[in-house]
Amino acid sequence: MKIVQCVPNISEGRNLEKIKKIIEPLQNQNGFKLISYEPDKDYNRTVITLIGDPESMIIPLISFFERAKDLIDMNQHSGQHPRMGAVDVVPFIPIQNISIEECINYAKSLAEHVSFMYNIPVFLYAKAAQTKDREQLPDIRKGEFEGMKEKIQDPTWKPDYGQAKIHPTFGVVAIGARLPLIAYNIDLDTNDEKVASSIAKAIRKSSGGFQYIQAGPAYLQERDHVQVTMNILDYKKNPLYRIIETVKMEAKRYGVHVTSSEVVGLIPEDCITDSLRYYFAVEGHKLPKDITMDQICQYAIEILKFRDFDIKKIIEANL
Amino acid sequence: MKIVQCVPNISEGRNLEKIKKIIEPLQNQNGFKLISYEPDKDYNRTVITLIGDPESMIIPLISFFERAKDLIDMNQHSGQHPRMGAVDVVPFIPIQNISIEECINYAKSLAEHVSFMYNIPVFLYAKAAQTKDREQLPDIRKGEFEGMKEKIQDPTWKPDYGQAKIHPTFGVVAIGARLPLIAYNIDLDTNDEKVASSIAKAIRKSSGGFQYIQAGPAYLQERDHVQVTMNILDYKKNPLYRIIETVKMEAKRYGVHVTSSEVVGLIPEDCITDSLRYYFAVEGHKLPKDITMDQICQYAIEILKFRDFDIKKIIEANL
């Protein structure tokens, strides 16, 4: 059976009633599971995770788009996270028995339907991008919802599907395919955003840091501290432990400490164990070969300081 | 007055008599100074540093090429460092009152002369490169002296000056212009090259590490330990302290420590002070504003653990 992970992000993270209505078409379907939805009040955004057969996902995803269109008005939206559409981004990620090329085809199929049915302009991004300058989501999203009205008229930014005109309340969406990515945030015991910003610059590719890290600062209103929020685009080449330790090292000059960290969405098992292996080695030990999924989860909480984490956030625990 | 740094590297690091004969044309000249020459037995390579007016350097450099051609036979050369010519590389680096474009022109002038006078094929590299695939020296040098005989016949690797045929004893040379670069090596208390190799992979751009780091492992026969040898292409974006601390962090998993480090050639003053500022901040202090050049040198030795270092290796101390 072909398994993908599909992770739509919607621009609503505060009104739980609306969120539930929007995700309803994705619940209790044959062929795939709605693994989680994680509303974030500060970001005013919800990350939704589906796992299963991509073929079965397309029609429910179209209904989900319709609900997001009807219930979210981007003109009213504010939040800490950059965004350009009611459904902001939809990546298809190969997990088992499926190639990235097949994922690209599912992305195109969904794009065609939502642009045709609801007049939503679609940009194909990441591995589905048709041009080099659409590979990086932040490049497409630059200007955000507010700037997109003008940007989309620039021939360079003509959408891949739909007219060169934003949907008045929905905005635009990026749909694509990519390899597994870790959305990971490291919490700092300060509320000085400048500290998080300077640390983010040290680690992210765009300012000279690690090749597969996109990072920025974020202030969490509810918890009253800042975090370095990041995407890890290749967790094999930029393992978690290296990022955590580099963040600790940079934080030292400000007298700031790492208190905890959080994985948004799911994480592959080997992403955790590769980093546990480092901390075990530092202590002169080896990670046991017969380690159970429960133990991995426990160590991730204790050693990598994952907060709000449980075994269901490990991809392999859901298969 | 226009000031450049020019750093020819020759493929002889063992026979001091030969080295002295080769650099003789560069000594006691008007308009520039021979700041240092640093033979390395393990690398079998000498890094020569000139500072001053580039106009005055060209004719002495041509004589220096002639001596290297007469005294070095690349067919007999072996050493730890990759190389393709008797003079392996000559970069011109803008220091004061001179643009990178002017440096490119001096590089071209020298290239034209040595190719014409001695039948030495020249590749223009770095900022002087005529094509994208000649920007990185390692790409040009791949295959080294031994492989160049064939490589140079490939139309892609036609030299920028001279015939598509290596000089039988000299080989080929890369001449170019670039911004200041730090050649920096970090010593480890192990002789296991695999450890240095794995740490190099963690920090270098080509395998996912920091954007401006080229790095590899090297075993130092004389001192019987390995080091992570690197070029820092932009020391403002990838400061020394960040690299040192990341190397320490990676070394930990092997029970290995950083014992010292070395700067090959010269280093700008602010490259040292930017990193001292980090270590001062970690201790809750500020770097004194009225710090002297002597104190900077002393702290570099104590805190950054520079070995074989003295004030003359700071560029500004030579102006």
Overview of the structural elements:
Two copies of one chain form a homodimer. With 319 residues, chain A is an alpha+beta fold. Chain A has two domains: 3-177, Formiminotransferase-cyclodeaminase, Chain B, domain 1, CATH 3.30.990.10; 182-318, 2-Layer Sandwich (Alpha-Beta Plaits). In chain A, 33% of the residues lie in helices and 23% in strands. Chain A contains nine helices and eleven strands. In chain A, strands 1, 2, 3, 4, 5, 6 and 7 form a seven-stranded mixed sheet that branches. The first copy, chain A, has a four-stranded antiparallel sheet with strand order 9-10-8-11. In chain A, strand 9 (213-220) and strand 10 (225-232) form a beta hairpin. The longest helix of chain A is centred in the middle third of the chain and has 19 residues, at 100-118. Chain A is globular, with a radius of gyration of 19 Å. The N and C termini of chain A lie close together (11 Å). Chains A and B meet through helix 7 and helix 8 of A and helix 7 and helix 8 of B.
CATH class of the largest domain in chain A: Alpha Beta
List the uncertain runs of chain A: none
Instruction: Tell me the quaternary state.
Output: homodimer
Q: Hey, roughly how much beta strand do the residues of chain A contain?
A: 15-25%
How many distinct helices of chain A? 9
* SSE order of chain A, one letter for each helix or strand: EEHEEHEHEHHEEHEEHEHH
The SS-based structural class of chain A is alpha+beta
- Domains of chain A, number: 2
Q: How does the overall form of chain A come out from the CA principal axes? A: globular
CATH fold type of the largest domain in chain A: Formiminotransferase-cyclodeaminase, Chain B, domain 1
Fraction of helical residues of chain A: 25-40%
